[in-house]
């Protein structure tokens, strides 16, 4: 039908460089580099090792939870209770070590275990509510968000718990080689999450449930188990993160983790995961978490108030998803 | 007087010629039966009339006016053509009256005039003799009552032609009688009805004229009074694309799959044809074809055997061992595998790679400690089935959604075969795939049976059931009505079992049909 002189490219042309596809594939890292360059030019203190470590420490606390959120979003789920569960687990752990155990060389170990296990149990309960009671995950975790926060306030009448020894505080402010401990933990968690999703049968099943739950069930995947397990995983990671945060601040606070659900979900979404499930990965999430960290830090250095930061981060989340949709529907 | 004149209408979809120069003439106040097997093109024709599809060629004249093929469906409704599909188009949370006038509510000062809406609805329902409460929410109505709402809705638009797609498939005997009374009422008001049904007894009892379609073509048309049920069966079946018949290479072995009195826990109450205490068996090395109309219960049975739906009574045995089926995992462990009917919704992970799609249920065997996936072994597995099934693909990392339907089906067959099941159930193995791929799939199933697998094939294409099966089990309205040797079965005989439950069909009178 087309005239031979038509300038339209033939389908059989050798693949040309597709800028849109390239930009889409690497959009998070491109945007991250752009931000680093802009902030680096704008403020000479931004591009320093000290500031880089500062950003990484900040990112690590919610980045650990974002690794878990990757699993949850991969199955097509959501968890908005993570901030509250973090607070509850950390304050419960602090309560146990200060009021029950007292001071000792291994208080950090008890706190670490208690905090992580409470998070695990809390997440497991939420996962069971999703699979047994067939309540949508958003509703379950919205309820959980209030329940855990309320329980946190009940536990110590809303006050903080402090008085940790040096071994405990090392987990928040110590260093391994030259890296802050939370950064090392984040790296380990991210690596483990990546390996699990990329190389294990469990990871394949997580992708399968999010890709098509009915097809997964008919392929012999235990969909309920996978669903419950991802909520348990993110719960455990929220507990771990809560322990690290209390160690870093020197106290477990009832308001800790407020608003984390947004940062954590934003990290995963900006990292390219689909909210309908089945696509995404830990690599993207880590970049997404870094991007938010760089943005917050850079804006602070430019003396932009935290109110404006919230506006900017919100707009970027929407823009990232809009761009993703645009690139998906406009590919050659 | 002619109301609708469909002339030489054709419609193609990629790779398929759905309609080929079809004619259909319906008079004013006439109840016209549109007959044909599954896949004969009836649905496509209905969709062209309701403007859900646009015809490629030919003309449709309605009430003396040539219709524009690019009309929106709403325009056709305004012209007076209403279509009632098997899946109703109602809003369950709204009342009967609201559904009837949805989007066309009488208004007063810009707001809905509720009292008039209610009064108008009540008046029309009385007029049509429909025993419905206009305030009742549709959610609580029976299927038959919902159908009445659809008819009433059509009449609010002053429909002159109502197309009913299998209106009695989900109705009980008494409800069928009531529907027929309603249709007689419509007829008295000079409303025409196109009645699509496989229940030929009903057609004989209440339709004026008939048109038979086969393989997308017009076959015959005439007065119902002039033909017997057997004649209609004969016209519907006719000659088909021939498939090569399976030749069995070994005698059937021991019974592998035994189903005893299986009844589902949650019968689909809307359908009277739900399964009731079904029993059958399949031997190793044998292909059992399950024939029946859509909705006869074959897919429901497959899902029960596979543990996908809960069983209330009865049991499933593999190698004489009764199974405890709580989920498909239990069935897979016992050596049963299902290739489901709906490739896209139930089979494929469309965005995921061919490799991931094919290996998913076999991963345990491919993984160190049952978890660490050995990707080299996985690639080998995919390569094995690529060769064995001749799957055409660029490479194993391509998303399965990018393959043709036939190649997708081969990947799903590969997925099932990789588990080396003792029992393989394939539901509609070749739906929507091209003819060459169909023959290849048939060969694959035949080879599997020759390896000793008990293969169960569900197909709505009679020619396919006859070509691939060694034995044919016929379902009608939730029960098995016949168990036949495929070598001696005929399409006429099968169709008669499927549609009327008896094979006592008199020899057709060909002279009268061709006259």
Description of the structure:
- The complex is a heterodimer of chains A (332) and B (515).
- By secondary structure, chain A is mainly alpha-helical.
- Chain A has helices at residues 19-25, 27-42, 49-74, 82-101, 107-132, 137-155, 166-173, 181-199, 201-211, 213-218, 223-249, 260-270, 282-301, 306-329; strands spanning 161-162, 175-176, 179-180, 251-252.
- A two-stranded antiparallel ribbon of chain A has the order 1-4. Chain A has a two-stranded antiparallel sheet with strand order 2-3.
- In chain A, a hairpin with a 2-residue loop joins β2 and β3 (179-180).
- In chain A, α7 packs across α11 (223-249).
- Mean pLDDT of chain A is 90; it is low at 1-13.
- Chain B is an alpha/beta fold.
- Chain B folds into 2 domains: 2-237, Rossmann fold (3-Layer(aba) Sandwich); 255-351 and 421-500, Rossmann fold, CATH 3.40.50.
- In chain B, 34% of the residues lie in helices and 25% in strands.
- Chain B contains 19 helices and 24 strands.
- Chain B has a 6-stranded mixed beta sheet, with helices on both faces. Chain B has a 6-stranded mixed beta sheet with strand order 18-21-22-15-23-24, sandwiched between helices.
- The radius of gyration of chain B is 25 Å and the shape is globular.
- Chain A binds chain B through residues 199-202, 204-205, 207-208, 211-212, 214-222, 278-279, and chain B through 306, 308, 327-329, 332-333, 338, 340, 345-352, 356, 360-361, 363-364, 367, 370-373, 375, 415.
